[in-house]
Amino acid sequence: MKVAAEGCNLLLLFITSYLSLISGLGVHSLSYDHSATTKCLAEPRRAQYGGGIIVNPGFDHNIEGWTVFGKGAIKERISNGGNRFIVAHNRTHPLDSFSQKVQLKKGMLYTFSAWLQVSEGSDTVSVMFKTKGSKMVRGGQVIAKHGCWTLLKGGIAANFSSPVEILFESKNSNAEIWADNISLQPFNKKQWRSLQDASIERVRKRKVRFQISHVNETALIGAKVITRPIKLNFPFGCGMNHHILTNKDYQSWFVSRFKFTTFTNEMKWYSTEKKQGEENYTIADAMLKFTKENGISVRGHNIFWDNPKLQPEWVKNLSPEKLGEAAAERMKSVVSRYKGELIAWDVMNENLHFHFYEDKFGENASAAAYATAYELDQEPKLFLNEFNTIEYSGDEASSPAKYIKKLQEILSFPGVSGMSAAIGLQGHFASGQPNLAYMRSGLDLLATTGLPIWLTEASVDPQPSQAEYLEEILREAYSHPAVEGIIMFSGPAQAGFNATTLADETFKNTPAGDVVDKLIQEWGTRPNIATADNRGIVDISLHHGDYDVTVTHPLIHSPITLNLCVKKDFSLETIHVKMRA
User: Fold this and answer.
1) In this structure, how many other beta carbons lie within 10 angstroms of the beta carbon of residue 276?
2) 261 and 182 inside one domain
């Protein structure tokens, strides 16, 4: 960071740090910085939140506040343009770097960011939080390069109160780690929820004004405006399995709640062709018929699965040549069969963690599958569907940086120009407090692609706080501006949903089911009734969607009815309603 003077003493430095801490818990906590980039820049951008609770975040005061972690050495360096940054050099171990101790408070969420560079080539650099007892918690990672600065954005959810040490990891211990404009910003749960609510109001809803008057222009004080949603624009759905075909209670339960679904297993290759050459789409076809009859949109899941253990048994031992023939037939069969019937396809499932087809056909196997799927059906969104990209910061294979890199490889492949690509984040959260700071940071980074983002299989492992955590995760996704849909892999016990169970064997709601029903209502499905003020004006905030509107008044016998479409780009205009006695 550029500075006008040097040599400030430690007393001034720690006064600055204290003021930063106060600011971090006060003014800055009222807003959240969604800004992110995956571009490698010639100069780093400013520290988010002014560095938050980090001491000397931009190295205006040399390296004061920072210490060596492990072996090696640290120093300040100044670029030709006058930018100051810290360097870890003479490294012999991946964790040899610079560090700073901070105090975490239980229940708080901490968003982290830093600008990073390495002295040679490129390498994955992670931020690590060393907790009491020397446990290392990964808070995020980025693919850093030499010659330009890359943003690492992540975070940590504190389920303890204690000091932690922030440091960095690069597995190439021959390379120096450079860092600048480091930030750690705390938010308490109340602040975080307030930010979610404000974002929902801003990105999911629009204000609508009604002016109610008599035909003689007299304001009709006390008129009632009732808005009933017909169709909401945000897809919020639930996975479905074959039990829907025979269980009437399951059918009623599902249809009364959801208009979007994914078949959990019934379209997968191991379900439709258990024996080579003997295709059987009977169950998938029947389920699709049911969804059509009930106005439910379906995501296709999936064309291929890159996990070697989850191929049809007869596929696992095929030669590359025979596998190529079988895969081509599978692609043509399933995509052509359901052409025009689906809103999306998961094309090559989990191909950041697994590489069955890449091992057989080469590194472009996944990209080629997307190109072929697009050639066969241009309409559905084609998703890269992965797990642990936002759920778990410790999984290096599917971090947001690795996800974007894979996506770029697919989108640069011949034959995909014009393809409606989309980001599929499964959202299977294990036990323990969800790291919403990491989740939001990951969504921010993925949003830089400009592609639609869906949570495709959201679930929370059984635990005492399951319902609470499920609500936190669903709210986080719904409130993020880049998320365009949510499908949960959950349901009633009678249908075999034993992880995130929404209804018990008698179809009575579980606590998780209560959460889902509450959110369905909260996100716009319930009627809204408002009363005109002394000017005859009614202001209502409505979720994006189509509405039937009824206007009544105690002195007027004939109500007025109209249709209203509230869209993302809906501008606030007064809707004039004139009533005749």
Assistant:
1) 14
2) no
Which residues participate in catalysis according to the annotation? 350, 457
Domain count across the chain: 3
Whether residue 302 is preceded by a cis peptide bond, meaning omega within 30 degrees of 0, is yes
Cβ atoms of residues 232 and 543 within 8 Å: yes
Q: What is the spatial distance between Cα 334 and Cα 279, in angstroms, rounded to a whole number?
A: 10
DSSP category for residue 223: -
Domain holding 215, by residue range, is 207-233+544-580
Q: Kindly state whether residue 171 falls inside one of the protein's structural domains.
A: yes
Give 55-88 pLDDT, tens digit per residue: 999 999 999 999 999 999 999 999 999 999 999 9
**Model confidence pTM above 0.90:** yes
The predicted structure's pLDDT at residue 571: 75
Q: Which of 574, 519, 573, 566 is nearest to 547 (CA)?
A: 566
Instruction: Using alpha carbons, select from 521, 464, 513 the residue that is nearest to residue 491.
Output: 513
First to last CA, the chain: 71
Q: Where are the beta strands (DSSP E) in 79-176?
A: 84-89, 97-104, 109-118, 122-130, 136-145, 150-157, 162-170
Together in a domain, 253 and 319: yes
